[in-house]
Amino acid sequence: MNAAITAPKQKDGSVGLWSGYGGKPVLQGIDIDVREGEIVAVIGRNGVGKSTLIKSLIGLLPRDKGSVVFRGSAIDTIPAYKRARLGIGYVPQGRDVFPRLSVIENLMVGEQISGRRATADEIEKIFTYFPILKERRNQQAGTMSGGQQQQLAIGRVLIGKPSLILLDEASEGIQPSIVQDIARIMVELNRTTGVTVVFVEQNIEMIPAMAQRCYVIDKGRITHEIMPETLEDRDAVRRYLAV
User: Fold this and answer.
1) Which H or E element spans position 122?
2) DSSP codes, 129-156
């Protein structure tokens, strides 16, 4: 199966993806390969480069060295908004909904990211995944709970019908029942539409519920590739995440 997105090493095995802030590297030779139709988790402790990786893949952070390849083509020089037009959806940490816009107005922003108008059926499909959004469609997003805002942020991305979704810490600050709902919905989306998902997460319970494979990151490098069920063992969690 073709790769959806990769941050590969060069043919001589060198480099990988380097990126960071203000000239200080955070990613130090990341090498990942995600195939189309997979759900892949990137896990690790706080501050080891998980969100930096997601921002580098979507183009919010420039690479210092290495390359990002999407569906066989390097996208290193392509800005974030054009990567969205290529079919990469990004759900940021902290959700970043527009607080003064209504739910439906936030969803319509997804049209502008993708460059295409959503049909009534497509909007209704979002509401079937997240019924609370239909119920609150005219409510200002800033007055909603964190979990409801997270559902809105995911729905906004889905409006653009991405082939790849980058999901950054979806469980942060959200009650467990909504975390479980989001995991279930992402798995259903993957099964029914074939969308590829790459997500970074600290919630250990969410990972086996969603992921098919896991990369472990530490100090800006991939240290292990493991199966999600490995994390059902407390000793393994301590070994890989030092928690």
Assistant:
1) helix 120-129
2) H-HHHHHTTTSBGGGS-HHHHHHHHHHH
Q: Please give the full DSSP string across 74-130, using - where no structure is assigned.
A: E-TTS-HHHHHHHTEEEE-TT----TTSBHHHHHHHHHHHHTSPPPHHHHHHHHHH-
Give the integer Cα–Cα distance in Å for 103 and 139.
6
Alpha carbons 70 and 191: distance in angstroms, whole number: 21
Residue with tokens 């969690």: 237
Distance from C-alpha of 171 to C-alpha of 91, rounded to nearest angstrom: 12
Give the residues across from 70 on adjacent strands.
5, 73
CB 91 within 8 A of CB 157: yes
Instruction: Give the Cα separation of 122 and 126 in Å (integer).
Output: 7
User: From CA 154, how far away is CA 110, in angstroms rounded?
Assistant: 10
Q: Report d(CA 199, CA 90) in Å as an integer.
A: 10
Domains of the chain: 1-84+195-243 (3.40.50.300)
Q: Residue 12 is inside which H or E element, if any?
A: none
Per-residue pLDDT tens over the stretch 149-197: 999 999 999 998 999 999 999 998 888 889 999 999 999 999 999 999 9
| CA separation for the pair 28, 114 (Å, rounded) | 31
Q: How far apart are CA 7 and CA 207, in angstroms?
A: 21
The answer, as to whether pTM is greater than 0.90, is yes
